Each structure stands twice: as C-alpha cells, then as structure tokens.
Amino acid sequence: MNDELLRRVMAVKARHEASLLKKANVVGVGVGYREQDGRLTDEVVLVVNVSRKQPVSQLAPQDVIPPLIEGVPVDVRETGEIRAF
C-alpha cells in the first residue's frame, strides 16, 4: 500500500468521521480495502459501517453517504448493530 495514499485517506477520515457518525444507521468509520462480491480488492477506501443498508430513496437527504469524500472512494458496508458488553 502506498504510504502517501494511506495518510491522505486517514486525514479525510479524521476530518469527516464525526459528521458521518451523525448519519442514520452509521455505526463506524474506518480505512480499508473496498469489498466487492465478497472479496477485498486492492483499492484503499473510506469504510462506512452501517447497521443496515437502505435504498437512497428511503433516506433523508442529510443521511445519504456520498460515493466520494474529498476524492476518496467510500465503501458502505452493512455490519448490523455494534454493542459493547
């Protein structure tokens, strides 16, 4: 992985994590590889974990997660609820 790319994606995460966590169903934000057809690719992305995916048409405009943030691709993944014991 390119260190410069990783630093850039981490910086974008730091700038946008708080606002993403305020969106409906968002339970986590991270950096990782895009998942496609159940497999990880080599594309570094901002990973937004949601409790459940919904069609854009069912989301309020402020809750839509953009496909790119500051030019960084976003991969939305359904993870279910995350709970601490």
In short:
This protein is α+β, with helices and mostly antiparallel strands and 85 residues long. The chain is built from one helix and four strands.
| Number of DSSP helical runs | 1
Identify low-pLDDT runs.
Answer: none
First-last Cα distance: 34 Å
Class from secondary-structure proportions: alpha+beta
Task: Count up the domains.
Answer: 1
What does this structure look like?
The protein is 22% helix and 38% strand. It is α+β, with helices and mostly antiparallel strands and 85 residues long. The protein has a single domain, classed as GMP Synthetase, Chain A, domain 3 (2-Layer Sandwich), CATH 3.30.300. The longest helix is centred in the first third of the chain and has 19 residues, at 3-21. The protein is globular and about 35 Å long.
Which descriptors apply to this entry?
22% helix; 85 residues; 4-stranded mixed sheet; GMP Synthetase, Chain A, domain 3; 1 helix; alpha+beta
Detail the topology: elements first, then pairings:
Elements: H1 3-21, E1 26-36, E2 39-50, E3 68-69, E4 72-78
Parallel strand pairs: 2-4
Antiparallel strand pairs: 1-2, 3-4
